[in-house]
Amino acid sequence: QVQLVESGGGLVQPGVSLRLSCAASGRTFSRYAMGWFRQAPGKEREFVAGITWSRRIPYYADSVKDRFTISRDNAKNTVYLQMNRLKFEDTAVYYCNRVGFWGQGTQVTVSS
Q: Considering only CA atoms, which of 101, 110, 94, 103 is closest in space to residue 49?
């Protein structure tokens, strides 16, 4: 069984940074691509960023490119999302994903 546990969300002002973490259980963490998605109130869940398992190639939604950075530490079974220059529209519940599995989500609220 795989479990994904997100942390690091919070209430922040526009322009600041946050780093989300997703700790995964399971011995095969390093063999799977990982991703972050988000869901804002009244909207569908959308892709934010992903990272491949072997070459750790990142890919991003256009809305976060150049502001967010995804990374992974396979030794720690953890994937990160560094979010810089946060905007109001980044407010959402952020979910960690591995194929077939979701975390419980962590709330990020950007407000002045």
A: 94
Instruction: pLDDT tens for the chain, 112 residues: list them.
Output: 889 999 999 999 999 999 999 999 876 777 889 999 999 999 999 999 999 988 889 999 999 999 999 999 988 999 999 999 999 999 999 999 998 899 999 999 999 9
Q: 10-19: string of b/e by CB count within 10 Å (b at 16+)? A: eebeeeeebe
30: left (phi over 0), alpha (psi -120 to 50) or beta: alpha
